[in-house]
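Worked example (supplementary).
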Amino acid sequence: MRNSVILRAMPTRKGPANSADLRSVARSSETLASIFAALGDPTRLKLVAILCAGGAFSIVQLTANTEISRQGVTKHLQVLADAGMVRNVKLGRERLWQLEPKQIEEAKRTLEIIGREWELALGKLKTFAESK
Amino acid sequence: MRNSVILRAMPTRKGPANSADLRSVARSSETLASIFAALGDPTRLKLVAILCAGGAFSIVQLTANTEISRQGVTKHLQVLADAGMVRNVKLGRERLWQLEPKQIEEAKRTLEIIGREWELALGKLKTFAESK
DNA sequence: ATATTAAGCATCCATATGGTTGCATTTCAT
DNA sequence: ATGAAATGCAACCATATGGATGCTTAATAT
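After joint prediction of all chains, the assembly is encoded as:
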């Protein structure tokens, strides 16, 4: 044996991982990545957390909870909107923002799938280490 | 009543949402955001998916599954490593990469929390809409 | 001993991102 | 009618990001 380490190389394989669920995740990897990217900023994460309370908030209200300018918040909201995670309605002179339930549900489902796959991966790693 | 729409403004409130779990998420928002950001790129998502199979792969092997250069892959792996999601071991002339079980487990747990919170938010939205 | 293979290092490039500021526009309250 | 409030629009700026390329170094195989 060339190496007595737990880590060892696997044969090169084309294509993605061999689980159907994981493949379905990979198929929409662009969309999924955009969702993760949307959450990949502290300010945006905070905005989402606030909106998670279930309400509809105006830009000034949301700005009050951050350290940045109103325009900065607007930009972040736009990013979230582009990822389809949030929607808005103009009401008089203010624009109210809330979570987009459908997309959020979709994202949550995907995260669950990934969670399950990770579980699977961890299981394999464990038996791998134990069988050493 | 000023507006007969489902959407309506909530009173401005300082501080984050009022759930203990969600607060705990917000507390580590920097770390959490870095995890999401790490997953927020199609190539990186693909790398993670491959590593989810549970193996340890060299850079050339990982590169074979992407469209970009070896150096590009190296950079992406570094991003994942910075987020603590992946680790590597130098083995002879190659460097093998695999998922970091601890961090992955942590990330998964956080995603579950967010999932639960979203559920909660959706519930509120529903009763909100129905009570109209 | 030497060619080959795997990876590292440094540089460069274009574009995206996160943020600001200043000014215009729309709506509301008095 | 007019001033204040909430946004919108556009430009600007610094830095981060995703990517390539060229050359060097370290291990391996023959």
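Two points are worth noting when inspecting this output. Residues 1-19 of chain B have pLDDT under 50 and may be disordered. Residues 28-130 of chain B form a domain with the Arc Repressor Mutant, subunit A fold (CATH 1.10.10.10).
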